[in-house]
């Protein structure tokens, strides 16, 4: 798969998507956003892909939406770009595969929004997170106001968006934006180790866990639990359930082949 602004490779069940505009700190131009959408659709349709990892080339994860492009926008162009970005980031939550953000450096503005749209976030100890749009006279537009308040609560989300302050990786972990922090050189090996181990698990269970947590989170608890029961039942029509339980009883490693 060839892209102008991304590197895309699939190995051992893991699609690694690297945003590759290091000279602009991987700023999200309209082309990057469009290619991210295409890369996600490609990975989603590929039976060989069980887990997706996003990272950035060079010293940044993503330093935001492309300010040079947005500088000339009028209101309608701003709205259209916001909608396009949101569509791609919302797609991450709707994919059947888990998506991990491996945040190697700056995750600012659209970069922080991309990280928060992923299912979970690993970060290098050099990473920095923030929503500095206030300094440009705008607000976050790729879902940041909403995802940040859901992740860290409205008071901290307001403080971060209203001041434009950055959090380092440990601070971001302390407030629940980041799951784990690694020394910079260990970030990719450790992330890929986890991604590969998830890729060996059952496709159906990966999909159902992601979907039930993603969608149930916004539901009333009793309804969400009822929905969990339905999706629990779905797992029992998958060969993965037979294989997983048979392998346990036969004291061997399961070989999940997917299906359903
Ligand atoms: N857009 C375009 N170019 C960028 C961006 C960006 N977001 N960030 C960095 N660059 C470019 C710089 O202009 C510079 O280019 P050049 O070498 O040609 O001068 C190059 O990347 C390197 O950057 P710096 O020299 O600034 O590197 P530093 O290490 O000194 O500083 C920082 C790194 C602190 C990350 C700094 O670059 C910075 O503050 N960047 C901007 C961060 C920011 O404000 N991000 C938010 C952008 S707005 C946004 O994301 C809104 C999302 C929703 C949009 C909704 C649609 C309308």
Bound compounds, please? octanoyl-coenzyme A
So what's the CATH class of the largest domain?
Alpha Beta
Q: Tell me about the biggest sheet? A: 6 strands, mixed
**Radius of gyration, rounded?**
19 Å
Task: Report on the architecture of this protein.
The protein has eleven helices and ten strands. The chain is an alpha/beta fold and about 260 residues long. The chain has two domains: about 190 residues, 2-enoyl-CoA Hydratase, Chain A, domain 1 (Alpha-Beta Complex), CATH 3.90.226; about 45 residues, Lyase 2-enoyl-coa Hydratase, Chain  A, domain 2, CATH 1.10.12. The model has no long low-confidence stretch (mean pLDDT about 95). It binds octanoyl-coenzyme A. Octanoyl-coenzyme A binds next to helix 2, helix 3 and strand 6.
Write a brief caption for the model.
By secondary structure, the chain is an alpha/beta fold. It is 48% helix and 17% strand.
Strands, helices and their partners?
Elements: E1 6-11, E2 14-19, H1 30-45, E3 51-56, E4 60-62, H2 67-70, H3 75-94, E5 99-103, E6 106-108, H4 110-117, E7 120-124, E8 128-130, H5 144-152, H6 154-163, E9 166-168, H7 169-174, E10 180-182, H8 187-199, H9 203-216, H10 221-235, H11 239-249
Parallel strand pairs: 2-3, 3-5, 4-6, 5-7, 6-8, 7-10
Antiparallel strand pairs: 1-2, 8-9
Helix pairs in contact: 1-3, 3-4, 4-5, 5-6, 9-10
């Amino acid at each position: 798969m060839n892209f102008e602004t991304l590197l895309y490779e699939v190995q051992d069940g893991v699609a690694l998507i690297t945003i590759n505009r290091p000279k602009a700190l991987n700023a999200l131009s309209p082309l990057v956003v469009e290619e991210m959408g295409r890369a996600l659709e490609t990975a989603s349709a590929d039976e060989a892909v069980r887990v997706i990892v996003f990272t950035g080339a060079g010293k940044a994860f993503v330093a935001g939406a492309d300010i040079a492009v947005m500088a000339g926008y009028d209101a309608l162009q701003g709205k259209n770009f916001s909608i396009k970005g949101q569509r791609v980031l919302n797609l991450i939550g709707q994919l059947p595969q888990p998506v991990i953000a491996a945040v190697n450096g700056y995750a600012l503005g659209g970069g922080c929004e991309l990280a928060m749209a992923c299912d979970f976030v690993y970060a290098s100890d050099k990473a920095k997170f923030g929503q500095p749009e206030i300094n440009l006279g705008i607000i976050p537009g790729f879902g940041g106001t909403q995802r940040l308040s859901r992740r860290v609560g409205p008071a901290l989300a307001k403080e971060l968006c209203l001041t434009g302050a950055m959090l380092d990786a440990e601070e971001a972990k302390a407030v629940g934006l980041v799951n784990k922090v690694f020394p910079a050189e260990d970030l990719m090996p450790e992330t890929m180790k986890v991604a590969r181990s998830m890729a060996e698990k059952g496709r159906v269970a990966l999909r159902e866990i992601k979907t039930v947590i993603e969608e149930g989170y916004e539901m009333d608890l009793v309804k969400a639990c009822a929905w969990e029961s339905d999706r629990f039942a779905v797992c029992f029509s998958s060969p993965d359930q037979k294989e997983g339980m048979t392998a346990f009883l036969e004291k061997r490693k399961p070989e999940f082949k997917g299906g359903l």
